[in-house]
Amino acid sequence: MKVSTGRWVDGDDFFDRESELQILESQVRDGNHVLLTGQRRMGKTSVVRELGRQLEAQGWVFLFTDVEGATCPEDVIAAIAKAAHPVRSLAARLVGTMGRAMKSTIGRVMKSIKEVNALDFGVKIRAGLDAGNWRHRGEQLIRACAKHDKPILLVIDELPIFLKRMLSDSDSDGARRVDEFLSWLRGAFQGLKGGSPVLIVSGSIGLAPLVQRLGIPDRINYLYSFRLGPWCREVSVECFERLAESHELRIDDGVANAVYEKLGIGIPHYVQFFFAGLRDFAIMQNRERVTVEDVDEVYRTQLLGPAGQNVLVHYETRLKEGLDDESYPVAMEILAEAATQDVFTSDARQSLERQYSTKLDDAPGCIVEALDILAHDGYLEAGDDGYRFPSRLLKDWWSARFRDHYKPLESRFSDER
């Protein structure tokens, strides 16, 4: 079992998630389209790729496309076509469904599908798409998949990031364009009579909060929502011990449990990240085994050090992509309060409303939106006394950044009086 600190995993490197895979496979085989949710680094991409790998072994076609870099619907349609390129019979069918002008464009650069790579194929498809024909061409593409002789699973990863970019880049017209694309996607798949292709949509920012904010939640009501949760303690410990065995790293009793305690929650990526840090520490110290005391040292110097802080940038970037310009600073205030004061209380919330009442037209609504996204994306979870970090690591990251210069919300308001 290889250690992975950034890439998706499958096959022998894929660990656990049997129950989740069983549920997803059941939904897919029943022809249900799925919205896969879960906080960052939970392994959503690895899960859908492993599902696709297993279905391929059973005669399915698996198409995976990441649309994080897409800027318009035409890019998404071309990305799906590019994903279909390796399936020669399907790629040929796609070309056959295109208009005469597009087929002529493609025909000029290749004598057969085999003579052009996936990138060039996607580029040529994209060249024939524009604002006036992407809906029709996209529907043709979906129908071509439906007519394929094998069932197809299509995964569109990072769709919410694409929608958020289109929303931000289009100024006042962005909301209409997002609505238009989601309405088209829903219509294209609901219009299919058979059970293929089946769609799974996933992403590292929440789709549901986005459509809720735009007032169009019905655009995704055809998707079965499935949330990928963290590993429990037992699975986290088993994964860590499996990694240690695979890499011939000797660990004292209690090390794997100490790692889980430090993390506070079993996020697969960080179990791997912690193991990699301990393995490197042992190599640098010329040590043959890892102790419980080493867990404390590596957590303090590596996970909370520069390497860990670099990972925190990813969380901030994704948070900014999921929020508008007004909600983002509010969310950062909430996270700083919860990290340095252990909890974001109702009193702190009232103080935050007062602070932003002169800056925002609807400060309470902005706070509600920020809290909804922070809870949906796994930064915070609601409790009896307020909102707290479920992840000790994420809390300590944020605390390390703000604790030396942060002033609690309630004390700010008291000083003003």
Question: What does this entry show, briefly?
Answer:
The protein is an alpha/beta fold and 417 residues long. Helices cover 58% and strands 8% of the residues.
Q: In words, what does this structure look like?
A:
- The protein has 417 residues and is an alpha/beta fold.
- It has three domains: 13-227, Rossmann fold (3-Layer(aba) Sandwich), CATH 3.40.50; 233-303, Helicase, Ruva Protein, domain 3 (Orthogonal Bundle); 313-416.
- The chain is 58% helix and 8% strand.
- The protein is built from 20 helices and nine strands.
- Strands 2-3-4-1-5 form a five-stranded parallel sheet, sandwiched between helices. It has a two-stranded parallel ribbon with strand order 6-7. Strands 8-9 form a two-stranded antiparallel ribbon.
- A hairpin with a 2-residue loop joins β8 (381-383) and β9.
- The protein is globular.
- The model is unreliable at 108-113 (pLDDT under 50).
Quick one: biggest sheet?
5 strands, parallel
Q: What share of the residues does DSSP label as strand, in percent?
A: 5-15%
Principal-axis shape equals: globular
Residue runs with pLDDT of under 50 for 5 or more positions: 108-113
Q: Write out the strand line-up for the largest beta sheet, numbering strands in chain order.
A: 2-3-4-1-5
Q: Count all strands and give the number.
A: 9
CATH 4th-level superfamily of the largest domain: P-loop containing nucleotide triphosphate hydrolases
Annotated CATH architecture of the largest domain: 3-Layer(aba) Sandwich
Helix content: 55-70%
Instruction: Find the CATH topology of the largest domain.
Output: Rossmann fold
